[in-house]
Design brief:
Elements: H1 5-35, H2 38-110
Helix pairs in contact: 1-2
């Protein structure tokens, strides 16, 4: 997150979407509590919560979560490639050192 302004922007947008949706839900519930009969608000409160969560998931998921997920996957894949390359380099260096030691041992045995 610290190295990617694009990721930070997506994270801020994600948080703003969820915050806005949940704050709107809260305001609607408060207004409803003072204007709608209690027996209606009992079931309407649950409906409002479900609708708010689904709306936030749909809006934030497509516009923020999917791009952030792709950025994280790309970062992980890049790191895996770097580690694999480092491992191959270390193995190649170890194999070269082993061949050098074997050649030196054979030269010493032949004298």
């Amino acid at each position: 997150m610290t190295g990617s302004e694009r990721f930070r922007r997506a994270e801020r947008r994600f948080s703003a979407i969820w915050g806005t949706v949940l704050l709107t839900e809260c305001v609607v519930k408060v207004v409803g509590a003072y204007t709608v009969p209690v027996h209606t608000m009992v079931w309407l409160g649950t409906v409002l919560t479900v609708v708010a969560v689904l709306a936030a998931m749909l809006i934030a998921g497509g516009s923020c979560a999917d791009p952030m997920e792709k950025m994280v996957k790309a970062e992980v894949e890049a790191e895996v490639q770097v580690l694999a390359e480092a491992e191959r380099t270390a193995e190649a260096g170890g194999a070269d050192a082993g061949r050098g030691a074997a050649a030196a041992g054979m030269a010493g045995a032949g004298s």
